[in-house]
Write a structure and sequence with these properties.
Helices cover about 35% and strands about 15% of the residues. The chain is built from 18 helices and 14 strands. A hairpin with a 5-residue loop joins strand 7 and strand 8. The C terminus is likely disordered.
Length: about 525
């Protein structure tokens, strides 16, 4: 099939948004009128699977087309290092590129903004002037060394507190209007003959929930955000109970945040229509992961791979895709190849050093636009997931998910438990690393501290009744697919503290000005 020419791509991530809270996915509350209109022009995917349940590894997968164990940006080493990003490829191909976000992880110090011509994080853990040079080396050393990793925890802990302040009544209700305004300005100023690529992350639906008053009054009337539990670690540690009424209040605040995001997204969509750019712009809207609000006795998006976290919304508008619904399996990392396909860009021919300089090659078997989508027997160089499907003894298709052993979340959980006089058992799920294989009708989750979990999603979509693979052929096949994936990626669970000694010395080699700056920020004594 010849691709219909598209000049631009707008890629929107609705951070931490569950698909069952969106009208296009059947939600009865009017949280998303703009997305509902968009869904009339787009393909709505029912079985889109995120490669991880939190921001950093998912975005790294979106930007590289790789699984977390391949790109390595995860709990132990929270930065993308050495991989050529989608933005770098598109910039080299002549497209104007920009990234606007209010997410603490999408900043220069994690490497996720590498390759973008323009970027702005409206919420940064550190000021921009210290996110490069010696401090960048120090940041990597901090995270790659057990002795120094406590500094990394302090760093992101500070970020979490800053986000809470920015999102509460003490700061602005939302950075989303500014993100949308900057995106419009970038598009307006773009003068590339080829077109533009704009990546946007909207953060409102991430804890804590302090929606603007207009939306709070509509969706959560009478609810005071300061009176409900806004810290998932308090609940998950056992330090805080939440009753049914409070859960209802929390969910209503969450709905209000989604409604605000939708209105701002609708403002951007409307402007693109008014300025005549809508028809030549491919639009991708997805969530990086979802959220748990008491299901499975959990709050937030840590320590689990349930479908509320990894079966995410995905809507794509492209002239070669029908305005319809699709039930077939989709992996979010396929979006990397879909964008390359949309703009007809090949990483190996755009002039990057070293024949692509580490960029994953464009693969039609992973492009949502291609006739051969997920016909992996045609893949030129199968990745770990493709191999796991190809090596199977059945015709099943599977998506794969990885959750490395948590570091920062575990630290915060232990802190809340300790404050409440609670000792977490060694087999608490917070200590577990998790991997999963998921098909459209089944899932199998492997863990290293808690029992594995298998589910028949076609019969038990809420994952309430675990199924032993010995008792179910479908779950058994899914477990075998996971085992093949594990064999192919092998090193995903290596100890992240096994690093070169030279890297661990980087902090000691930082100049005195940098060390003084770290002391001022509280990272050094």
């Amino acid at each position: 099939m010849d691709r219909t020419r598209q000049s631009n791509v707008l890629f929107v991530v609705l951070d931490t948004v569950r698909k069952d809270r969106l009208e296009p996915y059947g939600y009865e509350r009017a949280t998303t009128p703009a997305l509902s209109r968009f869904a009339e022009e787009a393909t709505v995917f029912e079985s889109a699977v995120a490669p991880a349940p939190w921001t950093l590894p998912v975005h790294a997968s979106l930007f590289t087309g790789q699984y977390p164990s391949q790109h390595g940006a995860d709990q132990g080493s929270p930065y993308l290092d050495g991989d050529t990003t989608l933005a770098s490829v598109l910039s080299a191909a002549g497209y104007d590129t920009a990234c606007y976000s209010s997410n603490a992880w999408i900043t220069p110090y994690t490497g996720l903004t590498d390759g973008f011509d323009a970027q702005d994080s409206f919420f940064e853990v550190l000021p921009g002037d210290v996110l490069s040079g010696p401090l960048a080396s120090a940041w990597q050393a901090v995270n790659d060394n057990d002795y120094l990793r406590e500094l990394a925890s302090k760093l992101v802990h500070l970020g979490a507190m800053a986000h809470a302040k920015l999102a509460s009544g003490e700061g602005a209700d939302s950075k989303t209007p500014s993100v949308i305004d900057r995106t419009k300005s970038f598009i307006d100023d773009s003068d590339s003959d080829d077109g533009w690529f704009a990546f946007v992350n909207l953060m409102d639906a991430h804890l804590p929930y302090y929606p603007p008053e207009e939306y709070r009054e509509e969706f959560a009337p009478g609810v005071d955000p300061s009176e409900v539990c806004q810290n998932s670690k308090e609940f998950n540690s056992g330090a805080r109970d939440i009753d049914d009424d409070e859960w209802e209040a929390i969910r209503s605040l969450y709905d209000a945040e989604i409604a605000h995001m939708d209105a701002e997204l609708g403002r951007l969509f409307g402007w693109l229509r008014e300025t005549g750019q809508w028809e030549e712009t491919t639009v991708v809207v997805c969530a990086d992961h979802g959220e748990l609000h008491g299901e499975h006795d959990l709050y937030g998006h840590e320590f689990a791979l349930y479908d509320q976290l990894i079966n995410v919304p995905l809507l794509v508008k492209h002239p070669d895709l029908e305005a319809d619904r699709r039930d077939d399996l989709v992996e979010l990392l396929d979006c990397y190849h879909t964008v390359l396909d949309t703009l007809d860009v090949d990483p190996e021919t755009v002039g990057l050093a070293g024949d692509g300089a580490g960029a994953v090659a464009r693969d039609p078997t992973r492009s949502l636009l291609a006739d051969e989508y997920r016909a992996f027997d045609g893949a030129a160089d199968p990745d770990a997931g493709q191999q796991a499907v190809l090596e199977g003894d059945d015709a099943g298709d599977y998506a794969f998910v990885e959750y490395a052993q948590p570091v920062i979340e575990l630290h915060h959980l232990e802190e809340k438990a300790s404050d409440a006089g609670i000792d977490l058992p060694d087999d608490h799920r917070a200590y577990s690393r998790l991997r999963a294989a998921r098909s459209t009708n089944s899932k199998y989750v492997r863990a290293d501290r808690i029992p594995d979990e298998g589910y028949r999603l076609d019969e038990d979509p809420d994952e309430e009744s675990p199924v032993d693979p010995a008792d179910d052929d479908v779950v058994a096949a899914t477990e075998r697919a996971l085992a093949r994936f594990e064999a192919n990626v092998g090193g995903a669970w290596d100890d992240p503290s096994d690093v070169d000694a030279d890297e661990a010395d980087a902090l000691e080699e930082a100049d005195e000005e940098t060390r003084d700056r770290l002391r001022e920020l509280g990272y050094l004594e």
